[in-house]
Batch of 2 targets.
Target 1
Amino acid sequence: MKGSIFLLALSSILFFACSDDEAHKRVNKITISVDETYQPVFEQLLKVFKSSYPLDTLIVSYKCEQECLEDLLHHRSNLIFVTRQLDEKEKAYFKQKELRISSLHVAKDGIAMIINKQAPDSFLNKDQIRSILTNKYTRPYTIVFDNAGSSTVRYIQDSILKNETISPQVYAAKSNAAAVDYVASNPKAIGFVGLDYVQDTSGMQENSFTNSVQVVSVYNDSTKEFYRPFQAYIALKVYPLVRKLYFINSEQKIGAGTDFINFVCKERGQLIFAHAHMFPLHMEIIIRETNLNTH
């Protein structure tokens, strides 16, 4: 991997036509289900949103992706944030019920692979990752996820394993933070977690990862280089393990859901995604190269 990283300069573009002033006047209430991987960034989004829209009531719960989708299909939540669009069967259900659905991506993030600080495999290609996941690698690993119904597990199954079966040596840690802790204390564990959970929160250095584990560099077959999940490498589409975050809205009239969607797709919401090391998808981006201090 080259000894350089990129700084992101951000300027916003507006997304929806509904103005903040119009939305501010309405009294609305909505139930929202959010993929629990993104709880830290959504806590920040909600904090800022509530200060600007005090008359809107958002009832938010954090769950695995599968439970979020079930909430939408069973009308327990009218707005969800997950890492996939509805499939054809799910779309047909809403069409048959004559319910209008809207959805769009709002940001991208990377899935971080983590290993214990004593483990040797800090550089891996996709074939090696697949062999680890199928228990065919030269060194055995316990594979650690947050839980069985998570978006991370689905991504690994759909994008890496495809038709292959995952190794039985799997540990469900119940949360991303617990997965990081497990890998940090187990030299033979390898984890797959959301990017927010491996960031250095000490404030000592920008664009750096936690010292409790190693973040694996993943090989890009096109560029023939290794990359870790820095924000700019996600933006430039060179880090291989990338996914999008979508909203799916079944609200049948303009209300609190529309207000929140406007907020996350406009300047303040998009900047919060950027500060959480995700890549916002509704902003103009300028990428500048600078030297990276790797020490």
Note: The chain has two domains: 4-108+243-287, 109-242.
Target 2
Amino acid sequence: MRKTTVAFLCYDRHDDRDRSVSGFRDATTAALASQTPDRLEIFRDRVNIRWGARWRERIRETLDETPLLIPIVTPNFLQSDECRDELECFLEGEDRRRRWDLILPVYFYPIRSIDDDEPIAGDYLVEELRRRQWLDWIELRAEPPDSSRRQAYPSRLATELLTALEPKPAVPSELRVGSREEYRTIGTAVEAARRWDRVLVTEGTYREAITIDRPVEIVRLGDVSKIVVESSSDNVISVQADQGTSPFATSEAAARASKSPTGAW
């Protein structure tokens, strides 16, 4: 019986020189086999791509077809153009599927920018990974291979994989903005939002410059004439995402903002 690919292992090859990534994959595959009668496998390029095959095309096809992505997050991963391309490709697939719980990052080696909770300027892929539920392998790597905690980890990941495979409706979260709401500014709500969440803006004057760097839906509630965004910045709202909807980010509003000395919309 042919095996079904359940997840794509996204990693930098330098991190597998000691076969630690390969061993991690093998242990997780064995854990999957112990939890389900289905013949499931985790795709890894050196194992699943035949000699002579066009590996870039094969990887792209697999990313489009595979339900889940497991990024092995290390400093090498963040510096790898191939890993970043694979992650970005899968994020696009999440958008098409309207599911944003299909990436299960494994924290393999310490990374200061993640440990210190300090954003890397302009690195939206790192920010996207940090919003996900992490599985931390760093401490367990130092434990003996036969330790109970280390052996339990692949079983936990296998359970997470099988749970993520279950069909789920795509229900975006709603983040409310206002003087009496959880978020007092539009910018903090956008920053906290996941892809395709809804940011609900209530009546009020918001003195801030907003950067929209991910696909979200921004909705005005109540009397829209009483919802004002103003800033002394030249760009009141900067849209860096290629998808999403905002009642503020229109050509008409942009024209008004460019003529306003305060940048009020």
Note: Residues 47-53, 249-265 have pLDDT under 50 and may be disordered.
